[in-house]
């Protein structure tokens, strides 16, 4: 068993609050009726085929409260605990922090440490796409699109317990994570600091590409660093460049 790489996408419910104004700068909460919570998440292990979704109605607790994400957070906590690396689009700024805040509020401890890969960060560090949204990157790279959704109506339907909306949300989440994985594979060789997947192997006879573990690599030139020169390699599968022994 090599690296446990988890692709993850979460969907949250909006805050329910009162306001004296509907206009942007003045609109602020007079009081909060209900805080945000996680509606659903979709995930896929890199070593498995299937994208899975976990939604609030999957839990018995949903019958008592449509807004209680404790059991859902329990499943998330377990997955994070298992993962060596979690990949999400804008995951470093949003998904992982949002999950963390729901974990601590629901009384869970810190999951065991994992590394993260944020496809939004890769997109912004190496490219100047017109838009760095997952949907648009998917389109630019011909890897597919997100499923169009009815936006606020869909979220409202789920918050209000409409089962049809939940089915749509599930399909939407599934497609998001499938698209995330495809976009990740297209972008990974451009990542400025991709984790070295070789280090997660139990043993190895030949070191493969640090980004994808392929042993289909080629020595191509010399990399000159601060103090020394190194043999430089390129992966023939994913296109990553990496360095080997000192020259
Ligand atoms: Zn590779």
TrEMBL record:
<dbReference type="InterPro" id="IPR012337">
    <property type="entry name" value="RNaseH-like_sf"/>
</dbReference>
<dbReference type="InterPro" id="IPR038720">
    <property type="entry name" value="YprB_RNase_H-like_dom"/>
</dbReference>
<feature type="domain" description="YprB ribonuclease H-like">
    <location>
        <begin position="36"/>
        <end position="187"/>
    </location>
</feature>
<dbReference type="InterPro" id="IPR036397">
    <property type="entry name" value="RNaseH_sf"/>
</dbReference>
<dbReference type="Pfam" id="PF13482">
    <property type="entry name" value="RNase_H_2"/>
</dbReference>
<protein>
    <recommendedName>
        <fullName>YprB ribonuclease H-like domain-containing protein</fullName>
    </recommendedName>
</protein>
<dbReference type="GO" id="GO:0003676">
    <property type="term" value="F:nucleic acid binding"/>
</dbReference>
